[in-house]
C-alpha cells in the first residue's frame, strides 16, 4: 500500500519505527501511496504527476515535490519549527515539530503554522489524486544530531528546560504517520502497523533511575518506593560513585530490578578512546559484582558518534540519551552510511530537578507528569520517565502517585531492558499486509505471540495478533480510537527566544562540567 521512492536509511528506519509494511522502488502500478524522498528525474517526475492525476497519493517535502508539480514555487527559508493550528487530523496528538533546518515554505500551504508565521503543510487534491507536502525534507531533519537547550510547555511559574535533541524526531514521525493515515483514508484503506508495545495493551510504563551521586540512604529510599508501588525500576549505575554499593544493586537485581550502567566517570568525552575506557571500566566492575550490564545511559543524556562507537565496541544492546532523541519510539541512529548496532530507547527528559528549577509546586509537578502520561497513552506509545535518587527520596509520595497513575493509564509496566529486547524481536518480525476490497490479508514468516498488529480506520481501531491470517474488515470488533489530546497554543510561548534561558543554560553547563570532574 505504501511505497518509498528511494532507499534511504533515515526514512526506512522511521517507517520501521511506525511498524509499517512498505516497498521501496519507482514502480507506480498498483501503488496507492508514494513517499517521494528525493527529487526524481524529468521522466519519472512526468510519470509521477500522471499517477497522481489518475488517483495516486503523494507525500513529499516541498523541494522534492517541486520537481513533480511544475507550478509549485517553494521559498527557501530558515524553519525552526512547525506546530498545529486548528483541528486538522494531520496534527492529531502532535506537538511542536522542532526542525531547525532550511525549509521550503509553500505559498498554498493550508495546515499548521511555521515559526515565521505562514501556514506549514499543503494538503490538496490534484486531479483525481491527493498530495500532502511538508515544508521540510525529512532526511535532512533526521540526519541532524545537534542538541541544545529547549523549554518544555508546562503550567508552572517558569518553563522547565534541559539540553536535549534540537530536532523533535518523535513529532516528525507522528506527523508523517498522520499524513500517511490521511492519504490511505482517501483511498478507502486502513492504516495497518505493528503495535509499539508488547501484547494487547495500549501503552506501557517504565521508570528509570540514573544513580548519579545519590547517597546510599537515598538509593535505599528509591528501592522502598519501588516496593511500595509494586514495580521493578531500571537503575543505571554510576560505578565510580557507587562502587562501594554494588552489593545493593546486586541484591536489587536478584529481586528482579533492571540494573544497568550509567558510567565509571560521570562525563562524556568527544573522542572514542576516553569514552571506551570510561564505560569499559564501569562495565567490568559491574560484571565482577555479578550484574553484567547490557544497557547504558550516558551522563547528562549526551550523545555523539564516538560515544556510540564505544558502546558498539563494548557490545551494549541499547542506550538512552535525550540529546539524541526524547519522547519517541526506539530506533537505530544512522552513523556514517549504516545503522548503529546499539538501539536507542528514548525517555521523557524532564526530571523533578528541572521542575524544581521551574519553581513548580508539588501539585504542578504531579499535573505535569500526568499530562505527559496522558499524551503518551493517547498516542498508544510507551511512557518512560526518569529521575535521580535525591529527588526521588525527597518527593517519594508525589512520585508514588505519579507512578500509580502511569501504571493505570498505560495499562502495563515494563523495564528499559525488557522493552529494548521486545523491540529487537519486533525489528526481526517479517510481515506484510494487503487489502483487497473488504479483505485484510496479514502474512508473517512465523507466529509472533507477543507482537500485535494495529488496524485503524474511520477513527476506530482493532488489535490483531501478528500471525498469518485473513480478516473481513467489516466483521472486526472495532473500538473507538483514544480521544486525542488537544494542542494548547500557549505551548508556543516555550519557543520564544530567551537570553535568560541561555544564561541559565550556560550556568548549568558549568555545573555539569564541575560534576563531571568529581568522577
Question: How would you describe what is shown here?
Answer:
Residues 212-318 form the NodB homology domain. By secondary structure, this protein is an alpha/beta fold. Helices cover 34% and strands 25% of the residues. It is built from 16 helices and 27 strands. The strands form seven sheets. A nine-stranded mixed sheet has the order 2-1-3-4-9-8-7-5-6. A four-stranded antiparallel sheet has the order 12-24-25-27. Helix 6 (216-229) packs parallel to helix 14, helix 9 (272-288) packs parallel to helix 10 (305-313) and helix 12 (362-379) runs parallel beside helix 14. The longest helix has 19 residues, at 499-517. The chain is globular and about 70 Å long. The model has no long low-confidence stretch (mean pLDDT 95).
Structural class: alpha/beta
Mean pLDDT: 95
Roughly what fraction of the amino acids lie in strands?
Answer: 25-35%
| Dominant shape | globular
Layout of strands and helices, then pairs:
Blueprint: E1 2-4, H1 9-18, E2 22-24, E3 33-36, H2 42-53, E4 57-61, H3 62-65, E5 75-83, E6 97-105, E7 111-114, E8 119-126, E9 129-134, H4 138-142, E10 147-151, E11 161-165, H5 169-186, E12 191-194, E13 205-210, H6 216-229, E14 234-238, H7 239-242, H8 246-254, E15 258-263, H9 272-288, E16 295-296, H10 305-313, E17 318-319, E18 334-335, E19 338-339, E20 343-344, H11 352-357, H12 362-379, E21 383-387, H13 389-394, H14 396-410, H15 416-428, E22 431-436, E23 439-444, E24 448-457, E25 460-466, E26 469-472, E27 479-480, H16 499-517
Parallel strand pairs: 1-2, 1-3, 3-4, 4-9, 13-14, 13-21, 14-15, 16-17, 17-20
Antiparallel strand pairs: 5-6, 5-7, 7-8, 8-9, 10-11, 12-24, 18-19, 22-23, 23-26, 24-25, 25-27
Helix pairs in contact: 6-14, 9-10, 12-14
Amino acid at each position: 500500500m505504501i511505497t518509498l521512492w528511494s532507499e534511504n536509511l533515515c526514512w526506512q528506519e522511521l517507517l520501521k519505527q511506525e511498524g509499517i509494511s512498505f516497498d521501496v522502488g519507482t514502480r507506480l502500478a498498483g501503488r496507492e501511496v508514494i513517499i517521494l524522498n528525493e527529487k526524481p528525474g524529468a521522466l519519472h517526475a512526468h510519470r509521477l504527476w500522471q499517477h497522481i492525476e489518475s488517483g495516486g497519493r503523494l507525500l513529499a517535502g516541498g523541494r522534492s515535490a517541486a520537481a513533480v508539480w511544475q507550478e509549485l514555487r517553494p521559498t527557501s527559508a530558515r524553519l525552526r519549527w512547525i506546530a498545529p493550528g486548528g483541528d486538522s487530523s494531520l496534527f492529531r496528538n502532535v506537538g511542536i515539530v522542532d526542525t531547525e533546518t532550511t525549509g521550503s515554505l509553500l505559498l498554498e500551504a493550508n495546515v499548521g503554522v511555521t515559526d515565521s508565521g505562514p501556514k506549514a503543510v499543503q494538503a490538496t487534491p490534484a486531479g483525481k489524486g491527493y498530495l500532502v507536502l511538508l515544508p521540510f525534507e525529512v532526511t535532512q531533519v533526521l540526519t541532524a544530531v545537534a542538541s541544545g537547550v529547549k523549554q518544555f510547555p508546562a503550567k508552572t511559574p517558569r518553563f522547565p528546560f534541559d539540553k536535549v535533541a534540537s530536532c523533535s524526531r518523535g513529532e516528525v514521525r507522528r506527523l508523517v504517520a498522520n499524513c500517511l493515515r490521511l492519504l490511505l483514508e482517501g483511498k478507502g484503506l486502513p492504516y495497518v502497523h505493528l503495535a509499539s508495545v508488547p501484547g494487547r495493551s495500549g501503552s506501557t510504563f517504565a521508570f528509570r533511575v540514573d544513580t548519579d551521586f545519590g547517597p546510599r540512604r537515598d538509593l535505599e529510599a528509591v528501592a522502598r518506593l519501588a516496593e511500595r508501588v509494586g514495580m521493578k525500576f531500571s537503575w543505571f549505575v554510576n560505578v565510580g560513585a557507587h562502587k562501594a554499593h554494588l552489593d545493593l544493586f546486586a541484591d536489587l537485581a536478584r529481586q528482579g530490578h533492571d540494573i544497568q550502567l550509567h558510567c565509571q566517570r560521570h562525563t562524556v568525552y568527544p573522542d572514542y578512546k576516553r569514552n571506551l575506557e570510561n564505560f569499559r571500566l564501569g562495565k567490568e566492575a559491574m560484571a565482577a559484582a555479578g550484574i553484567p550490564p547490557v544497557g547504558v545511559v550516558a551522563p547528562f543524556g549526551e550523545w555523539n558518534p564516538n560515544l556510540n562507537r564505544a558502546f558498539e565496541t563494548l557490545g551494549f544492546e541499547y542506550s538512552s540519551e535525550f540529546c539524541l532523541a526524547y519522547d519517541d519510539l526506539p530506533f537505530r541512529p544512522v552513523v556514517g552510511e549504516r545503522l548503529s548496532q546499539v538501539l536507542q530507547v528514548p525517555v521523557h527528559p524532564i526530571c523533578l530537578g528541572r521542575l524544581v528549577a521551574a519553581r513548580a509546586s508539588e501539585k504542578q509537578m504531579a499535573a505535569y507528569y500526568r499530562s505527559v502520561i496522558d499524551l503518551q497513552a493517547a498516542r498508544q506509545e510507551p511512557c518512560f520517565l526518569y529521575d535521580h535518587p535525591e529527588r526521588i527520596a525527597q518527593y517519594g509520595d508525589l512520585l508514588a502517585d505519579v507512578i500509580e497513575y502511569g501504571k493505570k493509564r498505560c495499562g502495563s509496566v515494563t523495564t528499559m531492558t525488557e522493552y529494548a529486547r521486545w523491540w529487537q524481536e519486533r525489528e526481526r518480525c517479517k510481515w506484510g499486509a494487503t487489502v483487497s476490497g473488504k479483505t485484510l490479508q496479514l502474512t508473517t514468516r512465523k507466529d509472533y505471540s507477543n507482537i500485535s498488529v494495529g488496524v485503524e480506520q474511520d477513527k476506530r481501531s482493532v488489535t490483531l495478533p501478528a500471525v498469518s491470517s485473513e480478516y473481513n474488515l467489516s466483521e472486526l470488533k472495532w473500538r473507538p480510537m483514544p480521544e486525542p489530546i488537544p494542542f494548547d497554543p500557549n505551548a508556543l510561548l516555550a519557543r520564544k527566544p530567551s537570553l535568560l534561558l541561555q544564561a541559565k543554560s550556560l550556568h548549568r553547563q558549568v555545573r555539569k562540567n564541575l560534576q563531571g570532574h568529581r568522577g
